[in-house]
Amino acid sequence: MSEYVDFAEYYDCDHAITEDVPFYLWLARQCGSPVLELACGTGRVLIPLARAGFELHGIDISANMLDVCRRAVERLALQASVHLTQANMTDFALPRRDFRLAFAALRSFMHLLTPTEQLACLRQVHAHLVPGGQFVASLVAPDPIRLNELPSDEFKLRREFDLPNGHHVRRTQRLVEHDRMTQVRQFDFKFEEQNRSGEVIRERVVPLSLRYSFREELESRLREASFGAVRIYRGYDGSPYDGTGEMIVVAQSRGA
């Protein structure tokens, strides 16, 4: 987790994803406030939940990401219902421990690169939940085709988007290393920012490491962190997990 480098200036445009927001809104309505988001970033999910009337506490390791989120919270006058803390999700201590729902959206849990870090995070989350509270993490299923991809020097185009200032950005990426023993894949994300004339005015390469996990090890780790019932879905519509697509883990906190 200490290796994480943010790209806050591009994050919202690069991750203009909304399909998971109704799922977290549904969970929040089932569980109630307060809600804790790990690695809340710029507030992609946190802000819609706060606008729906829930009390949100967000933690993130990146001061830059939190600055973007804080400006959005102030612009929308949500300061009364949103609380932000800079912290590592493996080691945080919030003043309240009565959360009914905690979640790590959009593969944030995959930034934890060792079983030790994963377990530390799960234990911290469990300590902050009420008995029966829910923890949700969204990961990518360990698809064999993807895991057999070989490292390459070639950057491949993944996304193009426009910034509010009218500049255009091409985001390419390459797989740098895949360690099958540690289950960690290391990528380089390259952002090429062009002005309105099409001239490249900035190029930035951001390293990114992600750890994939298998169902059985996640279930074992959750049990070790004192979670009880675990459900796993392959999509935000509640479809059963089949080893493909997303791996959406929903675990229930046990009492002390």
Folded structure, characterized:
The chain is of the alpha/beta class. The protein folds into 2 domains: 8-141 and 214-253, 3-Layer(aba) Sandwich (Rossmann fold), CATH 3.40.50; 144-211. It is 25% helix and 35% strand. It is built from 7 helices and 11 strands. The strands form 2 sheets. It has a 7-stranded mixed β-sheet with strand order 3-2-1-4-5-11-10, with helices on both faces. The chain has a 4-stranded antiparallel β-sheet with strand order 6-7-8-9, with no helix packed on it. Strand 2 (56-60), helix 4 (63-75) and strand 3 (82-86) form a beta-alpha-beta unit. The longest helix is centred in the middle third of the chain and has 14 residues, at 115-128. It is globular, with a radius of gyration of 18 Å. The model has no long low-confidence stretch (mean pLDDT 94).
Q: Quick one: overall form?
A: globular
Mean pLDDT: 94
Number of strand segments: 11
CATH architecture heading of the largest domain? 3-Layer(aba) Sandwich
Question: From the alpha-carbon coordinates, what is the Rg to the nearest angstrom?
Answer: 18 Å
Any low-confidence stretches, pLDDT <50, length ≥5? none
How many helices does DSSP assign?
7
Number of discrete domains: 2
Q: What is the name of the CATH topology of the largest domain?
A: Rossmann fold
